[in-house]
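Hi W., the pyridoxal-5'-phosphate complex you wanted:
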Amino acid sequence: MTKYRFNTNCVQGTYRPKPGEPRVLPIVQSTTFSFDDSDYVADLFDLKVGGSFYTRIGNPTTDGFEGKMNLLEGGVGALALSSGQSASFFAIINICQAGDHVISSSNIYGGTFNLFDVSLRKLGIDFTFVDPDSSEEEILACAKPNTKALFGETIANPGMNILDFAKFASAAEKLSVPFIVDNTLATPFLCRPFEHGANIIVHSSTKYTDGHATSVGGIIIDGGNFNWDNGKFPGLTEPDPSYHGLIYTEAAGPAAYITKARVQLLRDYGCTPSPFNAFLFHLGLETLHLRMERHSENALKLAEFLSSHPCVEWVKYPSLAGDPYFELAQKYLPKGAGGILSFGIKGGAEAGKGLIKHLDLVHLVVHLGDLRTSILHPASTTHRQLSEQQQIEAGILPEMIRVSVGIEDIEDIIADFDKALSAVAG
Ligand SMILES: *Cc1c(COP(=O)(O)O)cnc(C)c1O
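Structure:
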């Protein structure tokens, strides 16, 4: 297949209709597929031929979405799931079991933090959380003989730290474990983690992938660039008794990880996206390049406006001049730092809640990455299940307001904030 550039891949993906077939990736809302030959179906089960046989494990619409996301991130295979949470869950349990250990950045999405710190611990998987700005030596000092992965977010939600890929990739390489990156806030338009040493990427496709706040979903992309055959990952290199002795590294080569996630974890745990949602994610990606450019442009303008406003204590936006992550943003996000910014309003948490009440265009929603500008007070909403100490470790200050800057006219967005800030100050 001819190689196209990024924007062309957003628009056209991997779907290539044959004569007479729909121009747009069709929604195949069918649980199952019909055949007339048992031997052929046996070959499908044995992974000798590709194709869908039951929608829990694969579907042509979902396949179109997976193919496009895999192309955009530059991987060897992708697996769509029913939420970002299930993507992070699968990404870990595909290579970890009770008795294993993972090192994760402490500045991660609150839901991921709870998944790791509470639910996966109950399954016997241990986690050490490390400040992502620690030195490589400090990260390596967290390692144990049973460490199986290193995890971080490209742009931390909502701490706004930019991951130092070179440092994390080097630590992962020294430990011979995969480097897993949540690339939700950056999207492959702004940053392609495989080019910076990541081995596995996860996304909440609920956010910028969809872009229109219609569907919850997640996806894992396999970089195919990790050597699993180092003695630490028997689940990939030894026969799987639940799959009549299949050895994933032999059967799927560089796509061993993502093949196992599909035929073993998706088979057993479900977490399957609906074909209709996969259709919407695929549709959303058609404009990803245009949206991310405008989200980034608008967010920088709003960050500049807020940073010069007398009612604002501080602003965090990685491509704002003077931001502590400015250098890392220039290095890893040269096309822009995306649509999320945070700021602290003078008057603390109370002033923050007041500000939200005075906004008209901008609504309070528990979401981000939508076309529409939205706002949230993390300490009282998304991160309220964490203790105050955990909140501070995750970069959540009581006065912090998170804005997901949309693609409306920036003059209207700024005017709404200006009016609400004056009302709170007055
Ligand atoms: C929202 C989010 C998730 C969880 O995704 P869901 O689709 O809500 O399950 C994971 N990581 C990041 C960075 C997110 O913003």
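The mean pLDDT is 95.

W.
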